[in-house]
Specification:
heterodimer, A: mainly alpha, Ferritin, two-stranded antiparallel sheet, 65% helix, 1% strand, globular, B: 167 residues, alpha/beta, GMP Synthetase, Chain A, domain 3, 3 helices, elongated
Chain lengths: 269, 167
C-alpha cells in the first residue's frame, strides 16, 4: 500500500481520494437508509434479507473509508460520522428518506420506492464494481473482487422484488411506476464523478461516466423488456452530490446516524 | 537450527489457531473455515493474517481478539499482531473437509461447490441427508448463511452460502 502511495502524483492521489469518498459515502448512506427498515420490512424473511444486505453494504463503505484512512485522510470512523453535509460526496439518490414519518414514531415508509431505489442503485454498483476490478489502483481492485461476491446476492434479491411487484396487482404496479419516476429524477449524479471527472477517468481508476451508465442500462434492459417497460432516461443532475450539493434530507440523516458516535468519539462503540 | 525452531513455532501457532472457534459455531475453527491466510514468526513477533468471510461481519473483532489471546498463550509469544486482508478474497471453497464436518455437526450444511447456470445451488439436509429441501431465504441470520427447510424431516436448517470469485 505505502509503495503504491509513494508512486502516486498529487493529481493522482486527488483523483483516488475523490473516487473513494464517492464510493464510501454512497454505500454508507444507502446502508443507513436500508437500516431504517429493520423491523418494518413487509415480512420477516425480508427483514432478515434486507438487514443482511444493509450490513454487507456498511462493510463495503467501511472498506472504502479504511482505504482513505490508509491514505492519511483521518480515522475511518471519523470520516463516516463527522464530515459535514457539504463535504459529502454521495449521490442525492442515496440520501433520500424512505418515506413519510419518523422511525421512532409512526414511519409510513414506501416499500415500492425502496425496491426501485435499491434495484437501480445495486445494479449501478454492479457496473462500477465490475469496472473497478480493472482499476489502475490496486487496493480498489482487491476491494472490488471481494465486494463483488456479496453484491451478486444483492442484485438477485432486488431484481426479484422489482419483477414480482411489477407483475403483481394494478395497485402494486401503479406504486412501482411512480416510484420509478421518483428514483429516476434523482439518478443523474449516481453516474457522475463531479468536478474531478477528468482526473478520475484520465488515471484509469474506473471506466468513464458514459460507459458505466451504458453498462447499467444494458443490465436493466432484459428485465425492462420482460416487463414491457421503457428503459429510463438518465437526466442531468439538478443537484450534484459529487460536488457537495445535497438536500436537507442528508443533514437529517447525518444528525441521526452520528448521534451516538458524537457523544464520545474516543470510545469504541 | 534457527530455521527449524521458527518452523516448529510456526506449526505451534497453526495448532493453537485450531482452538479459535467461530464465535457462533463452536464446532468449527477459523482454520477449518479457511480464514487463516498466513502465520509469520519473527523472533518474538508473531503475525497472523486472516481473511474475513463477509466484509460487514460483526464477529470479525471478536475473532481478532480471540486469535490474539490464543496465540499470546504460547510460551514464545511476546508480541502478536492480527491483521485482516481482503486479497486474496475468502471464498467458500476454502472450508476444509474437517470444517464441513463441523458445520454439519452444528446443523449447518456446508457451502456447495457447484453453482447452476442461473446462480442457484443445492445442498442436502444436514440432519437427515435428504435432498428434498427448499430454499426459504437466501439471506440468513448472519451474512454468510442462508435459511432452508427440509421437507423430509420437517426441520428448518441453515447452509453456508457459496461465494466465489466468478460471482
Amino acid at each position: 500500500m505505502s509503495n503504491v502511495e509513494k508512486m502516486m502524483s498529487t493529481e493522482e492521489k486527488k483523483a483516488v481520494e475523490t473516487l473513494l469518498f464517492q464510493l464510501a459515502d454512497d454505500d454508507f448512506l444507502f446502508s443507513y437508509c436500508g437500516s431504517e427498515w429493520l423491523g418494518l420490512a413487509p415480512h420477516i424473511e425480508e427483514d432478515v434479507a434486507s438487514s443482511s444486505i444493509t450490513q454487507d453494504s456498511m462493510g463495503h463503505a467501511a472498506m472504502y473509508y479504511k482505504l482513505l484512512e490508509d491514505l492519511g485522510l483521518g480515522k475511518a470512523d471519523d470520516l463516516a460520522h463527522l464530515r459535514p453535509a457539504e463535504e459529502r460526496k454521495n449521490s442525492v439518490l442515496t440520501e433520500r428518506i424512505n418515506g413519510d414519518g419518523y422511525y421512532m414514531d409512526t414511519p409510513q415508509y414506501d416499500w415500492a420506492y425502496t425496491v426501485v431505489r435499491s434495484y437501480f442503485y445495486t445494479q449501478a454498483k454492479r457496473a462500477k464494481i465490475n469496472s473497478l476490478k480493472e482499476s489502475t489502483f490496486e487496493p480498489l481492485r482487491e476491494v472490488a473482487v471481494k465486494a463483488s461476491m456479496e453484491l451478486y446476492y444483492h442484485v438477485m434479491h432486488w431484481k426479484l422484488w422489482f419483477e414480482q411487484l411489477l407483475s403483481s396487482t394494478e395497485e402494486a404496479k401503479a406504486k412501482m411506476i411512480s416510484a420509478i419516476e421518483l428514483v429516476v429524477a434523482d439518478i443523474g449524479d449516481l453516474f457522475s464523478y463531479g468536478e474531478q471527472k477528468e482526473l478520475i477517468e484520465r488515471f484509469g481508476l474506473i471506466d468513464s461516466e458514459e460507459k458505466i451508465q451504458n453498462a447499467w442500462l444494458e443490465a436493466l434492459r432484459p428485465t425492462f423488456e420482460k416487463l414491457k417497460l421503457d428503459l429510463p432516461i438518465v437526466p442531468e443532475p439538478k443537484l450534484n452530490g459529487r460536488n457537495g450539493q445535497h438536500t436537507d434530507e442528508l443533514q437529517a440523516a447525518i444528525d441521526t446516524l452520528s448521534e451516538v458516535y458524537r457523544l464520545d468519539t474516543a470510545t469504541n462503540w | 537450527m534457527v530455521a527449524l525452531i521458527k518452523n516448529s513455532q510456526n506449526l505451534e501457532v497453526w495448532k493453537v489457531l485450531e482452538s479459535v472457534k467461530d464465535p457462533e459455531i463452536d464446532t468449527v475453527s477459523i482454520v477449518d473455515l479457511g480464514m487463516v491466510e498466513k502465520v509469520e514468526v519473527e523472533a518474538e513477533q508473531i503475525k497472523v493474517t486472516l481473511l474475513p468471510t463477509f466484509l460487514g461481519c460483526p464477529a470479525l473483532e471478536i475473532i481478532r481478539t480471540n486469535t490474539k489471546n490464543a496465540v499470546m498463550g504460547l510460551s514464545f509469544a511476546k508480541n502478536v499482531e492480527v491483521e485482516f486482508i481482503f486479497s486474496p478474497p475468502w471464498t467458500s471453497d476454502r472450508v476444509t473437509e474437517n470444517g464441513k464436518k463441523g458445520l454439519k455437526e452444528f446443523g449447518i450444511a456446508a457451502p456447495p461447490r457447484h453453482l447452476e447456470e442461473d446462480g442457484s445451488w443445492h445442498v442436502d439436509c444436514p440432519y437427515c441427508d435428504s435432498t428434498y429441501v427448499t430454499m426459504e431465504n437466501i439471506f440468513g441470520p448472519t451474512a454468510c448463511r442462508s435459511i432452508l427447510y427440509c421437507k423430509s424431516c420437517k426441520t428448518p436448517f441453515e447452509a453456508m452460502k457459496p461465494v466465489s470469485t466468478i460471482m
